[in-house]
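Entry type: protein chain
Record version: 2
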Amino acid sequence: MSTYMPKAGDITRNWYVIDAEGKTLGKLAVEAANLLRGKNKPTFTPNADCGDHVIIINCDKVVLTGKKLEQKTYYHHSGYIGHLKEVKYNTLMKTKPEFAVTKAVKGMIPDTVIGRQALTRLRCYKGAEHPHAAQKPEVYEF
């Protein structure tokens, strides 16, 4: 039995819109990562980039369960000695909720060339409007 390898013409990319209002951040990130990788398709191949485009709207209305809003912290380093920055998620969700959702999805995608290509197809928006109406995205429910 031979292994299926999709050709460039066989790969079709659909557009999906996910409404994040009332959804848990982790479960939302899992569904978005699966769509970006193409794991929902019968032609999924781990070593080929066959995923779809994902638009996430209402990022500011995503839910963190338990005490994560007060206790979870995002760390980043400026590159200078002693400049480790930390931001609590309640501050991050107020100022940059799109960044928090993007980081959650990025954590569920492999750190490879295919993973970096998949992240370029992710678009997150704070409100309910997005500029991709011309692509006729389908609403994705989970």
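Comment: The chain is about 30% helix and 20% strand.
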